[in-house]
Amino acid sequence: MSVLVVGTTALDSIKTPYSENPRLLGGSASHAAVAASFFSPVSIVGVVGSDFPEDYIKLYQNHGIDLTGLERREGQTFFWEGEYEVNMNNRQTLETVLGVIEDWLPEIPSSLREKQYVLLANCEPKLQRHILNQTQNSRFVIADTMDLWLNIARDELMALLKEIDCLVLNDSEARQLTEIDNVVVAVKKIHELGPKYVIVKKGEHGSILSTPKGLFIAPAFPITELTDPTGAGDSFVGGLIGYLASAGGEIEDHFRRAIIHGSVTASFCCQGFGLNATTQTTREAIDARVTELEALVRF
Ligand code: AMP
Fold first, then answer.
1. Any idea what the CATH number is for the domain that residue 204 is in?
2. Interstrand relation of 214-218 and 207-211 (parallel, antiparallel or unpaired)
3. Which residues have C-beta within 8 Å of that of residue 114, sequence separation ≥ 6?
4. Ligand 1 centroid vs 285 CA: distance in angstroms?
5. Three-state DSSP class for residue 210
6. Boundaries of domain holding 181
7. Per residue in 260-280, pLDDT tens?
8. Among protein residues, the one whose CA lies closest to atom 20 of ligand 1
9. Going by CA atoms, what residue is nearest to atom 11 of ligand 1?
């Protein structure tokens, strides 16, 4: 079964203490779609401007990503510039230019409306809801979000939570959403807001999945060189939904393995700038790391 991913298709400029990398392919939908493509067929819904390089279109195509829902418009592609501190955990957004995505609310092609697994990757909740309204027959919907939307679009986000199956957010966002410090208690509160499944990401410390059957604590894969964590969260959720779509059947039966596959896919993302390392990996390399991770946590 295939996955529909909506989110930002961006040009990212990423600074670290060691290097500067201008105009890389980025965006929540790009990272998530490439990650999902290791497991399932993927369609992307996004918009790019006239400055979007043809090579990046080819990169999507090399991963078999269906581009029927990728619109090209006159103007500037969504641009994001971020800078990491020496510890590579803290980062600051230096600039965001919405460009062609500003007020973009597309009618998606009818061929994309029947997709069973839908990922509303990080973007404005209004856009996430607009896509959700057009994919009413889907079987499983995951939404990702960020602190910005909790600050400036809280009501839209709250409305979205009532209509999705699973919310993914990081631990500080879970606290911000619920005003509860203890993550396990915060998760219970998030279930009350709508989603049956909640995943709280804790960066290099892994993630927590909460389902009606209880909790699952998932580790992150321990990498030895961290080059650029940009897009790790998007790769995590992309790998996760791609794996769920490939498994089919009951969601509960596959969720734990799906999280581990998401976690491992994200570990590759962190080892290169932008999508450089993710695009170099293979399903075999991902599976090998999953086996390594299983050995590390078995007791
Ligand atoms: P992450 O590191 O998982 O937070 O994802 C970083 C990606 O999110 C980058 O590729 C950015 O292009 C994209 N991004 C940054 N700001 C936003 C935003 N406001 N809305 C959607 N995507 C964004």
1. 3.40.1190.20
2. antiparallel
3. 135, 137
4. 26
5. strand
6. 3-297
7. 999 999 999 999 999 999 999
8. 123
9. 27
